Task: structure prediction
Amino acid sequence: MGVCCGTSRTLYILVMYAFWGLLFSLSLIVSPLFGRAEPGVVTMTATIKGTWDFDVDTGQNTAYMADLFWEQVTETERHIVPRNGAKFTNLGVVDFDSVVNFSSYSLSKDMIDGSVDHNAIPNGTVLVVKTDIGNYAKMRIDNYGYNLNVTIVVHQNPATAAPPLTTHFFGILLWTHIFLTFLLTEKRPRASEEKSVHLLDGERFIMDVSPTPNFKRYVTFKVLLHGLPLLAMFNVMIATFVYLGTGGAPISEVGTMPLIQTYAVLYLIIAVALICTTFVLANLMYGKYHYWVTDRRVIWKHGILGYSITSVPLEKISDVAVSRTFLETICGVGGLIVKEMMGEVGYGWYGVGGRFFPTMIAVPNPEEIQKQILEIISENGKENKPAI
Result:
């Protein structure tokens, strides 16, 4: 069993780090979804709509990753309000082309007055911006009004790492991976739970079997294998409602990128929450699952918050099969499926019928336990066989 566990642990580590390599490669491809700019200088013209958030890096009115809010307090009172840590300085009406050394200017998060009566941003005004993801830009007011027509030159920083959203998410995933790797592969033995079962008159225990700690890893991966694809489908509807509910710009005006950003951000947040919730449930299940074999029956305890105890008499068992699926092999577990003469026994979430998992999940050395159970059944059959 030591060799098997070592092999499964190695496979698990290889698969997980292959997953991390794929995820990192994917992040390089989709990094623009999170506002990360490619190296270079980009010049563009844009319209900042009144009462809208605006992203200087992309030149779009958007509900996410915005650098400023063009606030309209009244018909005449207006302000440029920095967002998400972006900083500004107002250079006044100066030659746009002469503004080159952005880092030499003193920037702040103070709002800039753009009110009609005392407008600090008339036509020709140049603003220097440090965006929410660390790029420097200069922005010229070409046409002042309820909407601002602007020209923007963004100096995209090739040394800038992924923006805070991406960085924090990958940090959460990394620590989640480390957390699961250590806790889901722990080898802490569990104490006997024979007192949880009341024996029949004359009945005696033969085997007391606890699931291995890899039970938690298997259950977690099994749920996520089904849950994450379902989340990907349902998140389309969730992202659409959130985007519209937060005042997202019409797709016909800004394209699909803001909606894709909303989808990506929500999926990452909900996926992390799902992973954490699943891990908690797997730990609760691990504390509830236990198996016994007596000289009369096979017994198992199962549940999540509460628990049920189920048994099958030995004389009604038609076969005991070993389960070694690909996922079980990767997770370093094996199961036993106890088959009744009337059908296969299995239990899912909250006692719902149907074999979601093997009847006995993550048992240590399932082949040996299978052999012992079959021998017990055979001996029981000989003892109960009537004399000729």
Remarks:
- The chain has two domains: 1-36+162-388, 39-156.
- The two ends are 43 Å apart (CA to CA).
